[in-house]
Structures are given as C-alpha cells and as structure tokens.
Amino acid sequence: MSSAPAATSEIFDVVIVGGGPVGAALGALLVRLRSRGLRVLLLERDLPDLAQPIDARDLRVFALSRASERVLRAAGAWSALAAVPGVLASYERMHVWPRDAEPRSEGSLTFDAAELGEANLGYIVGNAALQRATLAAFVEGGGTVQRAQLEDICFAEAGLELLTSAGRCMAKLVVGADGGRSRVREIADLGVEAQDYLQLAIVANVQSERPHEHTAWQRFSGEGTLALLPLASGESSIVWSLPRARAEALLASPPHEFASELTTASAGVLGALELASLRRSFPLRRVNAPQYTRERCALVGDAAHIVHPLAGQGVNLGLLDAAALAEVLEAATLEGEDPGALRVLRRYERWRKSDNELMATALDLFNRFLAFGGDEWSRWVERGLGVVGRSALLRRPFAERALGLAGELPRVARRA
Which residue segment(s) compose the domain that 77 sits in? Predict the structure, then answer.
C-alpha cells in the first residue's frame, strides 16, 4: 500500500475518491480488467489498517444480494470474507408482514431460497469487514491506496489535476465514491436533490429468546420499519427506522425499557429480545444526483444516490454501479477510447440511473403506504402484500429483485 505523497508528475488513468466498500470494489474490478494496464489510485481519508485481521462484529451491517456476491467474487474480495468464521451469515428466508397481520399468517409474505432453487437468499456482513476485504483485493490486484483528502480538482480537456492533502496527481478520470456529502460531486457541480425523511434508523445487536431460523424478519409497524437480520453468532442485527422524536426517546431509554419496546414492535416473532451491544443511530434521507457524469468525472454509490434502508438495497445498488462502470470502462479501453470521455461515461449513466431511481421510488412508496400506513390506500397495499404472499407465481419476481437478479445486470453479476 502506497502512503507517500503523489508527485505532480505522477499520472493515473483513474482516481477513485472514497475507500468504502463500493469505491474499493470498483478499484478491485478495474485492476482486474481484461484490458489490464490501468493505473488506479484510491484516496481515503480514514483508511483502516489492512494488517489487522477482519473482525466479525459490527453494528452496521449489509444484506448482500446474490448479484453483490458475484460482483465481490469477480473483484477478488469474497475469499477474504469467507475465510473468517462468523463474518458471513447466510439467510435462507425473508419474512415480511404489516402492522395488521400476524407473523406467518396469510397476510404476510415469505421468500424461501429453496423455492427459488438457491442455497440462500444472501449474506449479512459488517461494513468494516466488507471495506477491509475490498481494499485488500484492490491492493493485491496492483492498485495504489493513499491516505489523503481531496481538496480540489482542475478539469481540462486532456485530463484533470487533483489537489489532495498529500500532494497533487494527474488523471484521465475521477470517480466520486465519497458518500452522500460527496466532495467530488460538489467540485464537479453535478448538483443534488435531497429529501429528509425526518426519521432515524437505530442499529444494535440483540439476543432473542427463540432462534432466528436463518431468516431475515421485517415488520411494517405503522410508525416505521423494524428489520431483524440473522448473524452467525446466533444474535440478530436490528435496523429500526422511526420518526426522529420517537427514535431519540428510545435511544435515551434504559436498556430493559428499550428491549421491551423492541419486543413489542417485533410482535414477539423471536420471543423476548435483549440488547447485546450499544445502540447507534443515523438520519435517513433520500439523495439523488440529477447527473452521474460529466467530462472526466463519474459518481457511484451514495455519491450518486441514497435510498431508504427498509429493503437493505443501498450497498447492493452501489456494487452494481461499480460493476457497470468497470464494464463500460473495460469496453472503452479495449476499443482504444479515452476512459474519461463523456460519451463513454454517459453509457454508464444511462445504464444505472433509471434502475436506481426506480428502486428509490419503490422504497418511498413502501415507506409511505406500509411503514407509515393507516389510510385506505395503505390498507389496499397491505392486502396486496398478502395476495403476493399466497402466490408462488407472484412472489418470484419480487424474490428475484431481492436477490439482485432482475433488470439489466453487469456481466460479472449474472449467473455463470
């Protein structure tokens, strides 16, 4: 891993700003392209120590889809995750039910891996473990990582110059993978549309009276959404989305009171619940960049879009962005095209923007009519959930979407 300042004369094909799982996965894919030869630099202000072993415990977890698993395998990161016991927790079923239905009743909806001919529906993995595995895959593939913060970008027709806290470097393309408050997006003047949901998501690990059954449980409560995600330890990770005032009161409550409220909110589906960790929270908002690209610049992941976490699709959409951009850049370099040319980058934008916006809109509707339902429209949506739950034919398209296998997928995300 390089930590020396990049000199002004140092030239890269691609500079990725942001070393989270999406940015690091993009870098790992780029250094493994069939065209080879791409020089890729990744800038991250808060780099973890890659010499330290991967830790299985993390309050912030992701539900990785089958498509994301395939992307990570292609990036060379999956083996590092699979090698450490307890880091990956597979789930075989997903059970969803609304406020006015009982768990496992006809008004609920269950996706089962066996019904789809799959070994599981996906894996639960911690953010820190995923970041370390993707960063390590990038470095092992020949990428350069630098602990630095982006300060400015000078765009020019032939290339661009980046000013960072560690020095200067030149590149043909800069990719913003630096989150919802993206500095790349700001400097490139790509704009942003944001909507505050006025909600907080509470995250914690809990112990349950009954086993989680390798099932992801989700209840739309009428005042938000509660997800219980199975961990390899036998505990469950909760993501509890609530109006801000209600969430703040719960965060301030004693652990036993919080556990009692949580058990009630879960309708006792796993019996009594007890806290097994600290509680954390983060605000929920929807973010959309009207444009993902301009000449010599592209956005991926949260820098381009943030969606409601109720279906756990955020990192999965970001990894599909990374795979799609890598595929577009591979095709361009094989044809001898400039990877920073706008005509090349627009192919990526057209590919991913419509799919991301469709998912964001669907999640907004779920949040409105299921998580915070109560009117006549909401009751119709709840009935529709039960209808889908009773029909294997209707369930399948929803299950394929949950697996990340619907829509126009990048090559590395498709079934072999």
Answer: 11-92+124-194+286-371+404-413
